[in-house]
Amino acid sequence: RRDLDQLETRGLVRRVHGGAVAHSRVSTAERSLTERASRRSDAKLAIARRAVDALSADFEGSVYLDAGTTTAEIATLLAQRPAGLPPIEVVTHSMTIAHLLAGASGLNLTAIGGRVRGLTAAAVGAQTVDAISRLRPDLAFIGTNGVSASFGLSTPDPDEAAVKRAVIAAARRTIVACDAEKFDAELLISFGGLDDVDILVADAAPSGELSAALADADAEVWTP
């Protein structure tokens, strides 16, 4: 019991009747942007490098970047594209990503506004969703807090879920970028099914039911 008290104090578990559950598996658990940025940074960079393989050297279309720490790594790589390549149109509702890409050469940036949620530094709300619904980006890079065979893609916050759902509906192709810690996690709100995923990019391949469900949904799985 003392061990559980210590783990709860550290924020690693939540006490429930009869024991405890890992904080990362609580349906409303959500770390701040700062906390997430410091976790598994090497894995996120590897995922980002693999994800940008979806953009050919002569790609000159449009890309939507969801809010998140892995998508921020993708943004950093896009900002480092060699000079002379065709410009890319980049759209995001992430204040962090907009700051990273402001002034970067080789791309044109559109930042979508709305009410900014402090925990994620992302615009949310009806204004944001409406603006996204008027777009048709060629590719969308989406982050997720959980991905499971039965519940699909999920996140703890309803406003974030609404924005992610709108991005998926708008995009021609959807690439989900997440680390393997998100496998089999089910957060409070589902914002998409596995059949909405064209490519899942992760630092390890899923196994078991999730692997089979992704195959059934014709979703490609890419790993570094």
Topology:
Layout: H1 2-9, E1 13-16, E2 19-22, H2 33-37, H3 41-51, E3 62-65, H4 69-79, E4 88-92, H5 95-101, E5 107-111, E6 115-117, E7 122-124, H6 126-133, E8 139-142, E9 146-148, E10 152-155, H7 158-170, E11 173-177, E12 189-192, E13 199-201, H8 208-216, E14 220-222
Parallel strand pairs: 3-4, 3-8, 4-5, 8-11, 11-13, 13-14
Antiparallel strand pairs: 1-2, 6-7, 9-10, 10-12
Helix pairs in contact: 3-4, 4-5, 6-7
Instruction: Tell me the Rg in angstroms.
Output: 18 Å
Describe the biggest sheet? 7 strands, parallel
- Give the number of DSSP strands: 14
Counted by DSSP, the helix tally is 8
- Oligomerization: single chain
CATH fold assignment of the largest domain: Rossmann fold
- CATH hierarchy: architecture of the largest domain: 3-Layer(aba) Sandwich
Instruction: Report the principal-axis shape.
Output: globular
Which sequence of SSEs, written as H and E, runs from N to C? HEEHHEHEHEEEHEEEHEEEHE
Distance between the termini: 41 Å
In short:
The protein is built from 8 helices and 14 strands. The chain is of the alpha/beta class and 224 residues long.
Describe the structure.
With 224 residues, this protein is an alpha/beta fold. It has 2 domains: 1-29, no CATH class; 31-222, Rossmann fold (3-Layer(aba) Sandwich). Helix content is 32%, strand content 24%. Strand 9 and strand 10 form a beta hairpin.
